[in-house]
Specification:
Shape: globular
CATH architecture: Roll
CATH class: Alpha Beta
Helix content: 10-25%
Strand order of the largest sheet: 2-3-4-1-5-8-7-6
Order of helices and strands: EHEEEEHEEE
Number of strands: 8
Radius of gyration: 15 Å
Structural class: alpha+beta
Low-confidence stretches: none
Number of domains: 1
């Protein structure tokens, strides 16, 4: 999940597709767009979506839907999840999932804008724990 620059604020860098039937969704997107969709290492039920290289859209993930209302989430790079959570709240948005770590990779938070659209903040940080 390379962003080119360290933490360019506002750049879409990842997406996640929830599915009721992961295998059915995998076949659909693979056939529709030719995406390579392979299981992440480590035995998790999370699939990596390769959209086509450096000039393509960002890569993403595919996983089982966790809530009936869960939709595709786009991840946006920010230099500080903490600072941007404060900005989301100040601008009238909401934080659905507070700041959390993906160890040795990043911090993230799931938010909603003023129209109830879901998005995630992503702060790359190899020291996250």
């Amino acid at each position: 999940m390379s962003t080119g620059r360290k933490n360019p604020a506002g750049r879409l860098i990842w997406f996640e597709i929830p599915a009721d039937n992961v295998e059915r969704a995998r076949k659909f997107y693979k056939s529709l767009f030719g995406w390579k969709i392979n299981k992440f290492l480590g035995g998790t039920d999370y699939w990596h979506i390769e959209t086509g290289g450096a000039d393509a859209s960002p890569d993403g993930g595919l996983h089982a839907r966790m809530r009936p209302e869960q939709t595709i989430t786009q991840f946006v790079a920010v230099p500080s999840v903490t600072r941007f959570i404060a900005k989301v709240k100040k601008l009238g948005g909401k934080v659905s999932v507070p700041k959390a770590a993906v160890p040795q990779m990043c911090y993230f938070a799931i938010c909603q804008d003023t129209e109830a659209n879901v998005f995630a903040l992503w702060e790359r940080n190899e020291k996250a724990k």
